[in-house]
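Async update (no meeting this week)

Hi team, since we skipped the sync, here's where things stand on the single-chain job. The sequence we agreed to prioritize is pasted below, unchanged from the tracker. I ran it this morning and attached the output directly underneath so nobody has to dig for it. Comments welcome in thread, and please keep replies under the output.
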Amino acid sequence: MLTENKTTEFKREYVDDIKNTIIAFANCDGGTLFIGLNDDGSVCGVDDVDETMLRVTNAIRDTVRPDITMFMECRNEIMDGKKIVSVTVQRGTARPYYLHSKGIRPEGVYVRQGASTVPASDAAILNMIKETSGDSYETARSINQQLTFEKASNFFKKRNVEFGNAQMKTLHLIGDDNTYTNLAFLLSEQCSHTIKLAVFEGSKKSVFKDRQELSGSLLEQLEEAFSYIDRYNRTRAEFSGLDRVDMRDYPVEAVREALLNAIVHRDYSFSGPTLISIFEDRIEFVTIGGLVKGISLDDVKLGVSVLRNQYLANIFYRLKLIEAYGTGILKINECYDEYMEKPLIETTDHAFKITLPNTNYHIEKCNTMDDTKNRGMMNLTKKEERINTVLELCHRNGYVVRKDIEEELGISQATAILLLRELTEDGTLLKRGKAKNLRYYENR
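Output:
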């Protein structure tokens, strides 16, 4: 005589919670549900077999996600001379299966525990997702399926990129089972991953001047974080002769690339926030997730890029937020070619940190050690003398570097940078090379 166990369940007649048992079988080791049997296994039969089978198949098709019908067979059988319905369910390949109205959470996901059907724990749900999706966070089904994309849709529209259902499938926001992926979760208003920004007094985390936490779609967080940093990216004016030259504390492109790096490359399988700290002398971007296995820090500095979130990066590429993979760190370093202070990149097993120096802070610090005559406005005669000296150095050596000009003219790094920038912009000099190999040649 049959008995109820982990893979066998009896129902006297069709009841609504039959679908919970079918979900549990599909999420565990499969099983068979018999309709027309009492709890003790005795046969009572089913009055209308066809109607019962139709109710079962309709309920499963309409209420269970992903589609489980391919793993289920509903049959009319005779037992002890009476008609019953048997529903055989195999273990599914797209677990967890869940009630569409409840979502991927304990009240919507069921498993078998002995002869009982019970709600799955959060840990069990996450394990099922990991088993069926592998190690890819992006392509795993989102636990939250009630997602909205107003901000993302507007962002795509502003950049003239389509964002319909077909595009969402192509971009892997919707998986093969027609459910939202974690990538969709990251772009939705429901995204729970955050960016925390803070402004500190001085160069230590002792006194807060301001702070803000951003949530929602990563695209919205990107815009808001950039605007926030830009408010604290001061403009310093310096005069060279009659000309005023404005210099930002931080090169805008360097800030942009550091922020994009923090969003695109972070490990979203962890729940901690991305941290951006603004000090008097620097900005720090701290991202959860160290280097991808097999890649060293030296590789990253050379431009090697192994993407942790390849589909998120592809979306940013389509939106023209990034030009090519692996160029971000190189661009950041290029922004500081003319400055003595350089960006600092640090990494641990579980974190990545980029520090951008405040160029104006360090220039002003250098200027305090200069004579008063080398600060402020440069008169036209003095400027002409300096230009002539630079050109003479070019004739003599074939080229000049910033350090040569500082030593020859006895001026600060800031003044040398301004002078070379002017001569490059007006076409007098040509700039070639990068970083330590940066040289200036006379434009003949």
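Quick observations from my side:
Residues 371-379 have pLDDT under 50 and may be disordered.
The longest strand covers residues 72-79.
Reply here if anything looks off.
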